[in-house]
Every structure is written in C-alpha cells, then in structure tokens.
Amino acid sequence: MVDTQIPEPVQFVGNWSRKSRIQIAYEMLEDYAPFNSLLDLGCGNLTNLVNLDKLFYKKVGVDIVKYPHWESLSHKFETYQHNLDDGALPFADSTFDVVTLLMVLEHVFDPFLVIEELSRVNKTGGYLVINVPNIAYIKHRFSLLFGQLPITSNTKCWDFREWDGGHIHYFTLERLKWLLEKFGGYRILQVQSSGRFGQFKRLYPSLLCSDLQVFCQKK
Question: Residue 110 pLDDT more than 80?
Fold first, then answer.
C-alpha cells in the first residue's frame, strides 16, 4: 500500500538515543554542506528529501512507485517514477553532488548495475550515503548457528521469514566496500549504524551493527 501522508521532519535525538537512518545521513553530510544537488534513490513518500532539504538547493527523488502527494510537493522536489532494474537513470553524467540510497540495494535484482548507475550520475568528488542490512551481525550469526534463517527486515514478520521483507541480496561490510570500490569508484569515509549506541557499535561494525550506513566519496 502506498503511503499517502505528506511526511513531517523527523525529530533528531542525542548521541546515545535511537538514531534513525535519515538523522545519521544528515549528520554525515552537514559538515560538507551546503550542496547544490541531491538524488535520493528509492525516495518513497519523500521523507528523506524533507529531512535533508536545507542542506541542498536542488532535491530530486526516484522511486518505482509514484506517490499521490508528489505533485503537491513539486514546487520543492523533482520526482521521477523509474525502476532501478530497468537500466540507465534519466540523468546526465556527473549531475549530482550527493546520492542517497537508504535500505534499497537489498531489494533490487542487479546491485552491480545500480552502483554503476548512481556513480555515473554522481560528480567526481561527490558523496554517497548508502544503508543496507548487515547479514554478519552477531544476532544473525546466532540464528544461523541454531538453524534459523536470519530476519534482516521487520522482525515482526517471523512467520514470513523465508521472504524477509523482499530482501533478495545480503551484504557484509567487507563485500559492500568491495562493491562500492570496484563498481562505483568510491572510497569509504565513515561506517555507522542506526539505532542505539551507535558510537559503541562503530568499534566493530561488521559484528555489532544490524545495518551498515556507509558514507563514501567518489574518486
């Protein structure tokens, strides 16, 4: 079901509280702001664009589904309906200063193509913020040890764990770095995780982070 509500800005919290992915993205980018242009892939109801609004002059969103309120916010955000698995994004090379891809890559059929395409439209020296579930998270390791399939999406979907919220790819920190470097030409600047105790989890992200939020720069 498509969300028809116009999103409100997220209430940001302190360092030891439960931080959202969008707050972490904001904090990763704010020291480098202001920027000219942002592309949010998998923009959905525009929550990410609403919360990153003041860091950018031009904000563009792409999603496989067109949301009803996109038109009412067209004075602030450009939006495009496009399936990332269909191939080339509808933008010229080196268009955007920043690309965000939050909890999307695990849903696409061809993550290699998606990384190549977002890198193509990202300017040299530009930035990428990407978030994916971490299959090597310690809780998932214990699930496998005891013969259970890990749930990397909504833990309330236990009866549908074989579907795992439509996640069709799994990532570890090592392989995500490899993917970003080889197919996107990115170097890693930061690795964080949403939720509580982010500063603690950053000490050993490959084991302690349930999700991996990576801040990169295109070489």
Answer: yes
